[in-house]
Amino acid sequence: MKILILNGPNLNMTGTREPNIYGRTGYEEMMEQVKRAAHSRGHDVHCFQSNHEGALIDEIQRAWRDNFDAIIVNPGALTHYSYALHDALASVPMPAIEVHLSNIHAREEFRHRSVTASACIGQIAGFGVTGYILAMDALNAAKPVKNG
User: Fold this and answer.
1) Which one, 35, 54, 93, 129, has the greatest CB density within 10 A?
2) How do the pLDDT tens digits run along the chain, 148 residues long?
3) Cβ count near 80 (within 10 Å)
4) Which run of H or E residues covers position 6?
């Protein structure tokens, strides 16, 4: 399976940004863990991070044009207000799973609502980097079919 791992704003700061919430593992090390787990499962992954909403949308559209099978997305703060990111995820005929390092439902009230989750087949929150690996396993188990 060819999977896009898409990470939004501030995730490049993981490891130094609020380590009591997001952990001490840096972004590059986290993505290396994800790549190793993907390889062991026979997946080809492409990791992309941006602090810019439009760049994330461009990457979703590129993944569709390049025949990716699925998206695992951690939208960061865009989770809570980016209808444009929601629409981009909904517009491509491939399954997406939303992942969050922390449990967004146990944090500040504004983090409880995700506007992007309804464009995804599921959401995994609160398991740190393991959430990305759980998402890969969910894609394997569910064998979701592309719409369209």
Assistant:
1) 129
2) 999 999 999 999 998 877 677 677 899 999 999 999 999 999 999 999 999 999 999 999 999 999 999 999 999 999 998 999 999 999 999 999 999 998 787 676 866 689 999 999 999 999 999 999 999 999 998 765 544 3
3) 16
4) strand 2-7
For residue 52, give Cα distances in angstroms to 76, 121, 134: 11, 24, 26
Q: What is the DSSP letter of 119?
A: G
From the list 26, 118, 136, the residue with the least C-alpha distance to 79 is 118
Give the C-alpha distances (Å, rounded to integers) separating 85 from 3, 40, 98: 18, 30, 12
Query: Model-level pTM greater than 0.85?
Result: yes
The DSSP secondary-structure symbol of 147 reads P
Contact 86, 111 (CB under 8 A): no
Contact 77, 10 (CB under 8 A): yes
Express the helix, strand and coil content of the chain in percent, nearest 5 each: 45, 20, 35
CA–CA dist 92, 90 (Å, integer): 6
- As annotated, the active-site residues are 22, 100
Which amino acid belongs to residue 130?
Answer: T
Asked if residue 38 lies in contact with residue 65, where contact means CB atoms within 8 angstroms, the answer is: no
